[in-house]
């Protein structure tokens, strides 16, 4: 009987078509593991994508992306003496603003809550990012002052103004002031009497005759500071122009020969209201700051226990002005669970489109409109 001979001893390979490897335990030959071709392809694709992303990430495009920012509870920003407690919530709405690169630009185009705006419309040519930031912070400061003024005025507090002087906006050639006073000088006194406003200077100077010498105190801007100067000036004859364009000399009234406006004005508030806007810039929280101040200073909860968001600038007359990024702000209000969003009239159509029935949009053009709406709300 023939002995059995292993197949491989006859010169036949156990793995004739692929490379073999010997098992260290059994000594048998077995096919070596081959790396799948698709894995090489996947690695190649990933490397290519990585290279493309790295190359395009540094490519900036001339656009800003506007995305929804947080809805801020105004209570956390406003502080008044002995605040009244309310059960509702007032929110002011924000937008995040970011210059984008090419990848971020493409991502923004695919996001329905993000809008792209040309760089020039946000940051004009020649304006740096830091200058833009400081400008927005300045707008916020003015907005806060307006909000305090309107809120306290609405509540019947006695708000007063303190002027810093009469601002020289023009000098009449050949007049008594020519060569003595300059544009941007601030007249702060006449014959030792303090001048706060333009009307003070006009009344004081108008009481003298041509040829009278008066003493004028001014603050002159020098390298971002003011230098106090004193001048003795002989008044000329006051010149009027009648309805026919004829020049008439008023011999009973002296003339200095300047055009005047009011210098910077300080508002004196009867109570201490603090608004900590943190690092948020822009004027669009003005309306909501106003409502929050009023809510904290009154015994009744003007929110009627509701969650109310809003956006809009405010001036000292109580007018509410349009804002940017209203779509993103409406999305932020929806995320915060607001029931109503107060928006200026010029932004209503865009706000309604963004709301899509998920939140109620209320048009307000004055602080009075906002208060009337709040008074009609059912208690929440």
Describe the structure.
It is a single chain. By secondary structure, this protein is of the alpha+beta class. Among the domains are: 70-94 and 139-157 and 273-376, Ribosomal Protein S5, domain 2 (2-Layer Sandwich), CATH 3.30.230.10; 162-266, PDZ domain (Pdz3 Domain, Roll), CATH 2.30.42.10. It has nine helices and 22 strands. The protein has helices at residues 37-57, 102-109, 119-122, 129-154, 198-206, 286-297, 326-335, 348-355, 367-376; strands at 20-22, 29-31, 60-73, 78-79, 89-101, 115-118, 160-163, 166-171, 186-190, 193-194, 213-222, 225-234, 236-241, 247-255, 258-262, 265-268, 274-275, 307-310, 313-314, 320-321, 340-343, 360-363. The strands form seven sheets. A six-stranded mixed β-sheet has the order 6-3-5-18-21-22, sandwiched between helices. Strands 8, 9, 10, 11, 12 and 15 form a six-stranded antiparallel β-sheet that branches. Strand 9 (186-190) and strand 10 form a beta hairpin.
Distance between the termini: 103 Å
The radius of gyration over CA amounts to 37 Å
- Overall pLDDT confidence: 86
How much of the sequence is in beta strands?
25-35%
Estimate the helix proportion, in percent.
Answer: 25-40%
Strand order of the largest sheet: 6-3-5-18-21-22
What labels describe this entry?
22 strands, alpha+beta, six-stranded mixed beta sheet, disordered N terminus, 9 helices, Ribosomal Protein S5, domain 2, 380 residues, Pdz3 Domain
Compile the SSE list and pairings.
Layout: E1 20-22, E2 29-31, H1 37-57, E3 60-73, E4 78-79, E5 89-101, H2 102-109, E6 115-118, H3 119-122, H4 129-154, E7 160-163, E8 166-171, E9 186-190, E10 193-194, H5 198-206, E11 213-222, E12 225-234, E13 236-241, E14 247-255, E15 258-262, E16 265-268, E17 274-275, H6 286-297, E18 307-310, E19 313-314, E20 320-321, H7 326-335, E21 340-343, H8 348-355, E22 360-363, H9 367-376
Parallel strand pairs: 5-18, 18-21, 21-22
Antiparallel strand pairs: 1-2, 3-5, 3-6, 4-17, 7-16, 8-9, 8-15, 9-10, 9-11, 11-12, 13-14, 19-20
Helix pairs in contact: 4-6, 7-8
